[in-house]
Amino acid sequence: MEIDWAGLRAAAIETMRRAYTPISDFPVGVAGLVDDGRVVVGCNVENASLGMTLCAECGLVSSLHATGGGRLVAISCVDATGAPLMPCGRCRQLLWEHGGPDLLVEALPRPLRMTELLPHAFGYEDMERVTGPAGAAEVPAELAKWRGRGTVFVHPDLSGGETIWTGYWERSSGEPGTSEEKGILEEGPNFPAAAAAVAWGLVRSPRVVVVDAEGKLSWAGEGDTPEGIPQRWEDNS
Ligand code: THU
């Protein structure tokens, strides 16, 4: 993906001018290129309650999700002189979550990768090492933009002669009249009970369909049971 660094810097400078900084008089602006080509921006916002300051990067990440999600590819963060500013430590962690190790951050003389700004970063893998894959309810970072979309199908399966529950996350919503791309986003781990597989699904999408051993469908998602699904799922385990 082509990165228009001058354009990003210009958007960051424009946004920096809208910062709200009655305490520090240190305005910061940031602009980020999203993997679908959008540009999102943020500025810092201070408060009389001094510890409550929102860094520019916080606004950027909120805007990222408010306007459709996706992953950050490159950011330019600037100070009042328009020069590149290094994100603070907390914001490096914040950016890590939404851009990952390859996110490029404008710096002089060259952009830096997030791995250079935040080596040995803490992430979900560190938690999974302790909780194991069954506790890994979190959506993998590369699938974060799909969260809330698509449909999760939960079904029983055989593993080593035992019945377990698993599922998969399908990218289409199944809503009639839409021409959506189809395909599996993620295969779920094995769970001992249906309820755990449903919980795995609800972290991903509000549309969760349980397909039992006989192929009968029930709705374990949010809201009313949609047309075509005969009943609501009940946890009988
Ligand atoms: N600031 C940011 O907005 N982002 C950073 O990464 C560094 C610091 C803001 C917070 C505060 O409003 C001002 O800069 C001075 O610390």
Task: Please report the distance between the alpha carbons of the first and last residues.
Answer: 49 Å
Bound molecule kinds, no repeats: tetrahydrodeoxyuridine
* Average pLDDT: 91
In helices, the fraction of residues equals 10-25%
Q: How would you spell out the order of helices and strands?
A: HEEHEHEEHHEEEHEEE
Radius of gyration, rounded? Answer: 22 Å
Percent of residues in beta strands: 15-25%
Structural category: alpha/beta
Largest sheet: 6 strands, mixed
Stretches where pLDDT is under 50 for at least 5 consecutive residues are none
Q: Tell me, what's the shape?
A: elongated
Determine the number of helices (DSSP H or I, runs of at least 4 residues).
Answer: 6
How many beta-strand segments? 11
Strand order of the largest sheet: 8-7-6-9-10-11
Descriptive account of the structure:
This protein is of the alpha/beta class. The chain has helices spanning 5-16, 56-66, 89-99, 114-117, 124-131, 194-204; strands spanning 29-34, 39-43, 72-78, 104-105, 112-113, 151-159, 162-170, 184-187, 208-211, 217-219, 231-232. The strands form two sheets. A six-stranded mixed beta sheet has the order 8-7-6-9-10-11, covered by helices on one side. A five-stranded mixed beta sheet has the order 2-1-3-4-5. The relative contact order is 0.10. Bound molecules: tetrahydrodeoxyuridine. The site of tetrahydrodeoxyuridine (THU) has 13 residues, from helix 2.
